Write the structure tokens for this entry.
Amino acid sequence: MDILKIAAFSDGDTGGNPAGILISDRFPNEIEMQKIAADVGFSETAFATPVENGWRVRYFSPESEVPFCGHATIALGAALALRKGNGVFPLALNQSRITVEGRQSEGVISAALQSPPTHNTPVTPELVSSALELLNYTYDDLDLRIPPSRIHGGADHLVLALKSREALASMHYDLKAGRIFMNRERLVTILLAFAESNQLFHTRNPFASGGIYEDPATGAATAALGGYLRDIAWPHGGRIDVIQGEDMGMRSLIRADIPAVPNGSIRVSGTARIMPD
């Protein structure tokens, strides 16, 4: 079984978030896909099979299927560019239809996805308090210019903005407690963000719902963040750049282009690198 290993949102020849990619004529059954994802051991593995006018795609973490994964979509775009040539590839997901563009030029592989529609909903003070307690923060750590919210760009995330880079670096939590909390609240990740400027963010993404302590690059959460910043009239100037994974030694670079259309798709892009077997 030819499983490609590609790090999406890489920083040149380093960093990025590894994803497994299996392109085949038909899907393995669900039990096999779950086992493959667990054996690969990355935060997600994407499975793609050709259908009329594009590709049917499913995403599995080591412990569960997820509705959408940004970094695995970027990795898939890179894989399709390598196999099929540069182009824009329509993707049919479990709950939506999107596209990914893959390109290679002069030894650099890049990809850009158009996210599912974005939206956000308010969260209760009780949920915020529970999340802060889980992650060993207090209300004084929050940057309330970006209020806590449930944000969506293909999957649900809780966003907590922090006042300082030091607070972001101090994040720690119990994985089992995080899994219970995220599964109970139906959150794929918690997005912790520090705004260095209006257009430059540093983020971390606990991913206990998938059995992963932390994701080094999270395209779905970045898309959701971009949509949320648009909705709260943050002065983003049409795009944000995100640095993620620094605190785990996997520096990753993500760009999100933010159109003015309410609830619209966010373009999330970055480079990718092929990982050795």
Remarks:
- Residues 233 and 248 are 31 Å apart (CA to CA).
- The longest helix spans residues 70-84.
- The helical segments are 30-40, 70-84, 125-135, 165-169, 175-185, 219-231.
- DSSP finds six helices and 17 strands in the chain.
